[in-house]
Amino acid sequence: MDGARRANRLVVGGALVSIGVGVALVLFQGIPLGPALWLSLVMIGLPVVAMAQLLVLDEELPPRKAIYSGTLVTLMVLGALSLGVGPWYPGWDRMGLTAASPGPVLVEAGVVTLVALVLVFAGRGVERLLNLRQTDLMRLILPADRGDRAWFVAVSFAAGIGEELAYRGFAMGALIAMGLSPLAALVFTSVSFALLHGYQGVLGALRAGTLGLVLGWSVLRTGLLWPAIAAHAGLDLILGLWLARYLVDPDEGPVSPSPEVE
């Protein structure tokens, strides 16, 4: 109960800060109200909500499929709203949603995926060196059977589309349109993206932030969001379906919610 109260206070505080920042963007940057509020929500509000959820989930883990379904809906809304306000500000071009040939897009996505995989396993080495452990929630979301894998495939595609549209497309494009340097926009969105994945623990959040840097750098270098979308979805699929056992140490064992809710 104490965790729930702290989570509620955190959500309320995050909402107030997000609204304040959004209004400031309208008044001082001249950004339309809708994109301004969505930008502040993506950069501040959603990471705060993610951290608030962690306070509740530390006390009781929900069923695995409830996590999958809730995450899927959230990611779909994230992508849809980013597509809804993105053409208004910062525009299709700044979001990297311009036409491109499939061949170069797939080559770029393959290179980004390979680099990301190397970084993931380098991070696992650091994790073992520092004797850090994956969070229970992180281990719970890894698929355990065929039904879980079907859900995980859907969530992976939704993450590739929704998170990339929101962070590397809309947010990074909007920050650059406001006058920030591409490097600053890349760093700020990657930090926000890392906090959004705080449920994976400190090292997991750092890993997400690092991957955000890799994906964002690809967008800045190519001017296209498509390779980042493909690489993000592909990376999640590879790690969740084929390499999951390497993300969790054998002595940690699987995690399941209580039998009465499974």
Summed up, what is this model?
This protein has 262 residues and is an all-alpha fold. The chain is built from 10 helices and no strands.
What does it look like?
It is a single chain. 76% of the residues lie in helices and 0% in strands. The protein contains ten helices and no strands. Helix 1 runs antiparallel to helix 2, helix 2 packs across helix 7 and helix 5 crosses helix 10. By secondary structure, it is mainly alpha-helical. The C terminus is likely disordered.
Mean pLDDT rating: 88
Class by helix and strand content? mainly alpha
Helix content: over 70%
Describe the oligomeric state of these chains in a short phrase: single chain
Unreliable segments (pLDDT under 50, ≥5 consecutive)? 257-262
Name some characteristics of this structure:
single chain, mainly alpha, 10 helices, disordered C terminus
Helix and strand arrangement:
Blueprint: H1 2-29, H2 33-57, H3 64-85, H4 92-95, H5 102-129, H6 136-141, H7 146-177, H8 182-196, H9 201-222, H10 226-242
